[in-house]
Amino acid sequence: MSALKPIFIIHSLCGSRRPPSWSPSIYKCLLYNLYTITIAFLVSSLALSQMIGMALNADASNISDDIYLFLVQFVSCFKLLSLVVNRNNIVDLIVTLGQEPHQPLDDVEMNIHEKFDRLCRFNTNTYTSFVVFTVSNFLLLSLFTSFNKRELTFQAWLPFEVNMAPIVFYLSYLHQMLAMILGAVIHVALDTIVWYLLINITCQIRILENRLTNITNERKATLKLCIRHHECIYNFAAAVNETFKFTIFIQFSASTLTVCFTLIRLTSISANNLEFIKMLLFMSGMLAQLYLYCSHGHLITLKSQEIVYEMFQTNLMELSNDIKKSLLIMMRRTTRPIIIIVMNLFPLNIDSFVSVSIFIVMTKYANSSMFYDYLLFQILKTAYSAYNFLEQT
């Protein structure tokens, strides 16, 4: 659980989790609720002003330059809403991991748990560092360009004239920078908690595999524990999927569009331009988000399919018929692996990431017949997959 400490700190910063030490005090609770409302106002007001600004902008080229920034800010608003609405569900999921049968029982299981805990910490620290680096570069570039020219970083509609007085410009500029930083913190908060839960599903499967190797005729209690643990893992994965499926769908949709618009913008900028570096970092962050979601979901599916192989590592011939029948029931269950499916549309796996990546690259050739051929192929492929799925069910 040590991997949760930095994640909880980030959640407290973005207003989605009140520090436990503040709970006994009514005044501190009210103060933190006010803090959450303030953050929600700052982030959503920037997204709203960007959206109105694009709607009032008649220049299509400027809209394409601004829309990728708006999409990121819009997703941060939705992620904050998801964190606040699902606050109790997230707590329940975390508490479940600390209860039986998920809790490690011996040194071997503790080592397995610690291994995945280190992976969680590495993910959180690396992703947070990258976001801090990207936002810092964005801020510095904005200070040396937009701020010096007395221009706002984001093209947005405001109900007053920014250049009316210096204090008006400074406050408007500060609002945009604060909203951008808070939006980045919100992205890190939700992404890291989802990755933590996905990694722990893989961890639980690995612990279950270890328990399966310890089944003997004299240790029937271990068999009962394995059966219950196996069922609990499936239920836990379903709960995680249900809690975050719409949020991940919005993340995927917006990130794909963001990378597409960023890639189109990159083709019109010189590689020696500072703007090119900023947008390259921006696009790298979006692709990293998509990849980490897909890779963790892919690992869950692979590991859940490997459970049956661990069953064959036990001394099946020496086990009683009752134990063999119980293991057979578990084997039949493992023929249906754990798949994190986003809104019943697509699974979280490497194939989905590759499909998104191919689509992003193809946007560069949007005016060519090759692009439309690819779109037709994807439509036919999706229709055929849906037909097979319906036929099997």
TrEMBL record:
The chain crosses the membrane at residues 30-55, 67-85, 126-144, 179-199, 246-264, 276-294, 338-362. Its main location: membrane. It is found in: Cell membrane; Membrane. It comes from the Eukaryota. GO terms for biological process: signal transduction. InterPro entries: 7tm6_olfct_rcpt. GO terms for molecular function: odorant binding; olfactory receptor activity. Coiled coil: none annotated. GO terms for cellular component: plasma membrane. It holds the Pfam family 7tm_6. Keywords: Membrane, Olfaction, Receptor, Sensory transduction, Transducer, Transmembrane, Transmembrane helix. It is a multi-pass membrane protein. Interacts with Orco. Complexes exist early in the endomembrane system in olfactory sensory neurons (OSNs), coupling these complexes to the conserved ciliary trafficking pathway. Belongs to the insect chemoreceptor superfamily. Heteromeric odorant receptor channel (TC 1.A.69) family. Or2a subfamily. Odorant receptor which mediates acceptance or avoidance behavior, depending on its substrates. The odorant receptor repertoire encodes a large collection of odor stimuli that vary widely in identity, intensity, and duration. May form a complex with Orco to form odorant-sensing units, providing sensitive and prolonged odorant signaling and calcium permeability. This is Odorant receptor. It comes from Vespula germanica (German yellow jacket).
